[in-house]
TrEMBL record:
<feature type="binding site" description="axial binding residue">
    <location>
        <position position="416"/>
    </location>
    <ligand>
        <name>heme</name>
    </ligand>
</feature>
<dbReference type="GO" id="GO:0005737">
    <property type="term" value="C:cytoplasm"/>
</dbReference>
<keyword id="KW-0349">Heme</keyword>
<dbReference type="InterPro" id="IPR036396">
    <property type="entry name" value="Cyt_P450_sf"/>
</dbReference>
<keyword id="KW-0732">Signal</keyword>
<dbReference type="GO" id="GO:0006805">
    <property type="term" value="P:xenobiotic metabolic process"/>
</dbReference>
<keyword id="KW-0408">Iron</keyword>
<dbReference type="GO" id="GO:0008395">
    <property type="term" value="F:steroid hydroxylase activity"/>
</dbReference>
<dbReference type="Pfam" id="PF00067">
    <property type="entry name" value="p450"/>
</dbReference>
<dbReference type="GO" id="GO:0016712">
    <property type="term" value="F:oxidoreductase activity, acting on paired donors, with incorporation or reduction of molecular oxygen, reduced flavin or flavoprotein as one donor, and incorporation of one atom of oxygen"/>
</dbReference>
<dbReference type="InterPro" id="IPR001128">
    <property type="entry name" value="Cyt_P450"/>
</dbReference>
<keyword id="KW-0479">Metal-binding</keyword>
<comment type="similarity">
    <text>Belongs to the cytochrome P450 family.</text>
</comment>
<dbReference type="GO" id="GO:0020037">
    <property type="term" value="F:heme binding"/>
</dbReference>
<dbReference type="InterPro" id="IPR002401">
    <property type="entry name" value="Cyt_P450_E_grp-I"/>
</dbReference>
<dbReference type="GO" id="GO:0006082">
    <property type="term" value="P:organic acid metabolic process"/>
</dbReference>
<keyword id="KW-0503">Monooxygenase</keyword>
Amino acid sequence: LNKDPPGLPPGPPRYPVIGCLAQVQTIEDCKKFQKKYGNTFSLRVGSQTLVTMCDYKTIKEAFSRYEFIDRPNWKVLNFLSDGEMAGVIFRNGVPWQTLRRFLLRHLRDMGMGKSRLDDAILREADELVKDFKTYTHGPTLFPPSINVAILNVIWQLVASRRYDVNDEEIKKFANLVKKFQDDITLLALPDFFPWLRYLPGPLVRRLCREDDLRAAVKIGRGMMEEVVREHRASLDPASPRDVLDEFLLEMESQKDDPHSVFNEQDLIKTIFDLFTAGYDTTSNMVRWVILHMANQPAVQRRVQQQLDQVVSRDTLPSHTHRQQLPYLDAALNEVLRVSSLASSGVPHAAVHDTYLDHYFIPKGTVITGYAGFCHFDPNYWNEPEEFRPERFLNESGKLIIPKEAFIPFGTGKRSCLGEALARMELYMFSAALLQNFTFTAPEGRTVDLSPRPTPGTHFPKDQEILIKPRN
Ligand code: HEM
């Protein structure tokens, strides 16, 4: 057995070569470790030490500290840029800070109350309602228009583009992003098991489905490069249209700085980051909302009653109605809590040797915080297993967001930079759908709320639902 440095958080025994991989498959396994080893434990998977935190106070403390601000330096995370760190999600140091600030500034400038993004989301909500009307004749799987709506919002933000629901290019793009996200885990194998690099290259590539993924990425890259070319040709420096224009302007103004993060490689990777971080997450949250409403008819009815009181039936709910719809927002927060979609978040890494909860954490140790645990911690939530939107309302029915143990978008300096956008999308899409439809399980069936068995995320299972138009 390899020896761990002394002082690491306790954890299950690790076996030669694979570590404790065979014992860590789902959140249920982590629950068992939590019971046995406490709220902070370590897992050894191959050559990597992963420290898992299950308790809110420790997560909050760790992620507010500079020592845990990095991402792991895994090659897989930068597959798109041939192993070089690029973009924002898996970047460290000053380049990360610069790109994060750039994106936050432009998200703020374009969106949230400034009408550009709000209008774009409202338009997608309108298209979504029109498309859902064609699925009301019997049990149906989730309409693919959910994906198109979410992708269109990001396309609007990035490049002022949108696609029709049946457009072949957007279908291809959606499949590609999905394939990337599904298959990328396999590609992580050499980061965990470096000895794989000594096996014949073609065998490893086959094992990790690398060639497939490279082909998919090539298509995606081609699409991005085409958009960049088109934007360059039509750029008006006096009136930038979107994130891509703003990035091109930064590139121009910093072209003499060889260390600038505003370069072609970072541009493509940053755009891709926005799609990978903002697409599967938000579209699956919309699916969770539909499933929870179908499972809780009384909650669904109450949301609809409030919608009917506030918004005339011939108008779609917009951001201007939001203040008057606290019950809807409360229900959405409850869905964020119980689904805990990004349960283990995105991994962080220790910047240098340090301590956490009296444990020694060596430089480079990968560290994750499980939101899924915090959201069901009885120390913070009364009857956490119950679906109860009222926990997000005060006595006068006003929305209150708890300050503790509610971290669906992470916490600290690395927390989700798209939170405001995601929340606005969730609000507008849910409001539009619930104003126009009632969701139920098909006759004689129940809603399946168990998540797909993917490590670290809780995505809903695809399943049939009934979409009934409201008269
Ligand atoms: C319901 C939808 C979403 C959920 C639940 C979610 C959740 C998260 C979580 C848990 C993290 C990791 C925080 C950490 O490392 O501690 C994260 C990071 C991130 N998210 Fe989101 N997210 C959502 C939507 C979006 C959207 C719409 C965008 C942008 C278009 C976005 C962009 C990002 C980026 C760029 C990061 C990396 C931030 C960094 O490393 O500095 N996310 N998100």
